[in-house]
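Protein in question kept underneath.
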Amino acid sequence: MTDRDLTDPEYYLNRELSELAFQERVLREGMDDRNLPLERLRFLAFFTKNTDEFFMKRVGGLKQQIDAGVTKTTPDGRTPKEQWVEVLDTARPLFAQQSEYWQSVLKPTLADEGIEICTPDELPEGDQEQLRTHFEESILPTLTPLAFDPAHPFPFISNLSLSLAVLSSNGGDELTFTRIKIPPNQPRLISVSGEADRYVLIEDLIERNLDLLLPDLDIRDVSKFKVTRNAEVRRNEEVAEDLVDMVEEVIEQRRFATVVRLEVDADMPDESLTILKDQLGVDDREVFHREGPIDFEDFFELIDLDRPDLKPPAWSPKPHPRLGSLASDTRDETKSIFDEIKHGDILAHHPYHSFEGTVQRFLNAAATDPDVLAVKAAIYRTASDSKVIQSLINAADNGKQVAVMVELKARFDEKNNLEWVRQLEEEGIHVAYGTVGLKTHTKTALVVRREDDGVQLYSHIGTGNYHSGTAKGYSDLGLLTADRDIGFDLTKVFNFFTGPTLDDRFRKLLIAPVTMRERFTEMVRREAEHARAGQRARIVVKINGLEDPSMVEELYRASAAGVEIDLIVRDICRLRPGIEGLSENITVHSIVGRFLEHARIFYFENGGSPEWYIGSADWMTRNLDYRVEAVTPVEDTQLREQLRFILEASLTDNRRRWVMQSDGTYEAVSSDDDPVRDIQEILMAATEAALDHGYGPGMIVDTDLIEEALLVEDVTETETNASSEESGEVDLDADEKQTHSDGGDVSVFDVYSDHWYRPDSETYDWAVRTAEGDRRYFKTREGARKRLQTEYE
């Protein structure tokens, strides 16, 4: 055990700065010339979208704490005020880099490729006239200039709205400030007539034709600005009489929340800036001067241009080979999805596998199958035109018992979820809105079906939302299973959503906030005990965030005990790797690719008896203590193989992977002279290979891409003659021999000589090639012998 004080702030990174470090990695992808131009633009747009949310949620929360006089420090030793100052100072150069790269590199690059973003003044006179006519007929009627003077109060500026600040006069020295909101219901990019891919920004077109909107005025200056407001508006749920009314009030209050950031043109005059700061209550630190466009999010529109030469090949999610209809499939096509799940667990991996062909098909079947008695689902986020919701409505129409948990407090999705609640209730479906003090973050569904041998439970436990849109861009996993223990556990969880209490006794699932923290802590400590005893000890975890100080402390202690730990953490990570004597056995990786890495996978080697889990929870305090989360074991060997492939290929990625240094900075892993290994490209290829192969696993594991040796099943540890193992000689013991028809005895190692070899490994002395073409590693000859007999006899 380490004798260090693990509460010392020096061992913890700051949560907010760690998230900004992730946004910097997103920005770096937008500035990486290895990415095609439109792909770079997509990352620049994501950087804007992500940082908008960061300021609304995280910076807004810090400002709320400052205003409340909070001085309590975080585990890294910073007060809210200190964090606020550091966050603003860290973010400022990132916005400057985004603007500079766009202006000096990407915008000219796109222009060279025929995609131009122009100002009206750069266009020929004929195009300018055509655009002026378009402005007068289609844009001008939608604009409302709002003056600020003794007769007019300062106008309300809505969150994330883009505006023009106009200074004008009637010929004298006195200036009038006028705000013109850029209409959000008009396209931001306006196509120039007769030009295939030439555009002007609507704010530039409005500025160019202000004489039509503000006639007979002397326009002294026109500057663009954008306001970001705090999204951390909360009500006390304990005293709220109605959760729906409370959420509606929060949505309304958010519109008028405190301003946390003001972005302005770099050359905005002091007169306009002073008015905005005074009227919006903005500190100098909260003002960000921007060159070029202030908002890049609308540039997502350009990504859809028909220019395959400027972006990666489009990816279409594939059918799962066990569920898709393939010409080469010899199965009985009348077989239901429930028969297939009962035959064996199915692991869906989005966006590699189609959401519609897996999860949606599961819910559709539940809605229409006459033997289904009940359908239950927990919805955190879903699409605005959700087919998932429609399936639940259809199920109710078909006489099924339907219960739906809709989390009304899902941030930024409250309004959408409220609308679904009302529609579900109008259909007579029982809807639970959430629980006091907790968010429901599980991604779970349960189907109860009457069968010949009794009532069967079918479950889906996922890492991502029931959202067909994000399933095309988020990398997520979902387990479809007929495991009765998991079904009973899910029954308890759904009973909690509608009942008074959450049971703390579960057969297989790890459920937050009642059992998950305790079980994860036990498993980390167990690895440390194995390491101290000289047994196999390894932890590999893939999550979105590692923020919980207690889990960080447990990982430090495990590392100090000798456990080898790989953490694939997409964004927030408080843990400092590489501290001598403490975290030198921990490596923190982060992958930033075309798909958002969102799946959570947990691997514990457990002395050679491995355990694998997937689920909805990150190692964040909110997930472990303040949300209802579900994590499921994955026990099927073939599915573990797929999880192993995902983790091991991720750890050898040399294109999208970053490795954290002990100071919290990240370094990109370079391929140098080695072949490029992009984990997401590898998984796309593995999925296509599985589809070509026909009925079977969801992906074909390429063992040549795997350098590590995570276990998918128990390793036999029986001791044998050490001298023969060290020499590499094979003894022909009686129990290893087979009797041939001619009466001769030969060793199984001789009979299957093409299926085993002695690997170049410090850990394993034997390797067996399986019938499926994979490899299994063993420390002992006895383990290899038994595997050869299992595989080939």
